[in-house]
Amino acid sequence: MIPRYQTVLFVILLVVSIIMGAVLWQLRNRAHERMLAGQDSAPTQAPQVAPTEQATLMVANDQENSLMTQVLSLPLPPSPNARAQVILGKLLDLYTLPNAAHAVSGGAKGITQVFLMPVPSDQSATPAANAAPKSAQSGKQLAIVNLTGAFASAHPSGLESETLTVLSICATLHANLPDVTQVRFLVDGQPRADLAGHADLMRTYLADEAATPEGTRQ
User: Fold this and answer.
1) What is the value of pTM for the model shown?
2) Which residues of 158-169 are buried (b: 16+ CB within 10 A; e: fewer)?
3) Do residues 134 and 113 lie in contact, with contact meaning Cβ atoms separated by under 8 Å?
4) Do the Cβ atoms of 146 and 179 come closer than 8 Å?
5) Helices 159-176 & 80-94 angle (0-180, nearest 10)
6) Strands 180-187 and 205-206
7) Is 199:185 a contact under the CB 8 Å cutoff?
8) 204, 163 in Cβ contact below 8 A?
9) CA dihedral of residues 77, 81, 87, 90 (deg, nearest 10)
10) How many helices (H) does the chain have, and how many strands (E)?
11) Cβ-contact 167, 183 below 8 angstroms
């Protein structure tokens, strides 16, 4: 037979456990309500969307061995570096389409970064005493386009095909950023002798002389 005091103690412990469980349950509910209230009262911000602007793409055409001007509306960020990368990414995306006149795989992922910097001044020229350096006067820029190794490795090999890709990038940069007059290329952040065996990537390209458009498409 269970002693009376043990029965009383068991009942007391049972009641205390029930009370503690009820208190914990209420605390849990209150904490959950506070969390929901905090989420509802937190200010929500709509994602920033870049304004849509017209961009001019100089699209390569293998059959005519030329560049065609294609004007598209694209969301373009305000930063010139990011702007250049978005535009060139769209250009490379066009080359991945099934009916592309210049078929190249990789698309926008083929370009990791675009850097814009002032064109180095002519060290052989001595400016007048009160004149600003030549580079500061001209405002001309050098674009450094960093391609991926995967893009370069997958690019079709051939002098005409590689040259069209390079020239289309240079001409597209100059068409949208007229101050870009020179372009250099890196692959995975390092200098590379050529794109896919032919087009020279060690030289500096003159963007304003890259190509003369053969036509315009909207």
Assistant:
1) 0.71
2) eeebbbbbbbbb
3) no
4) no
5) 140
6) antiparallel
7) no
8) no
9) -100
10) 5, 7
11) no
Q: What angle do CA 116, 160, 83 make, to 5 degrees?
A: 25
At 179-190, the pLDDT tens digits run 999 999 999 999
Report whether 74 contacts 56 (CB < 8 A): no
pLDDT at 48 over 50: yes
pLDDT value of residue 96: 97
Encoding tokens for residue 106?
Answer: 């990789």
Question: What pLDDT does residue 30 have?
Answer: 75
Q: Which two tokens stand for residue 6?
A: 């043990």
Dist CA 180 CA 30 (whole Å): 61
Three-state DSSP string of 51-90: CEEEEEEEEEECCCCEEEEEEEEEECCCCHHHHHHHHHHH
Q: What is the dihedral of CA 36, 38, 43, 48, to 10 degrees?
A: -60
Reading the block at residue 90, the tokens are 């769209």
**Residue type, position 118, single letter:** P
pLDDT in tens, 93-149: 999 999 999 999 999 999 999 999 998 676 334 444 444 444 344 689 999 999 999
Query: Hey, what are 101's tokens?
Result: 């006149």
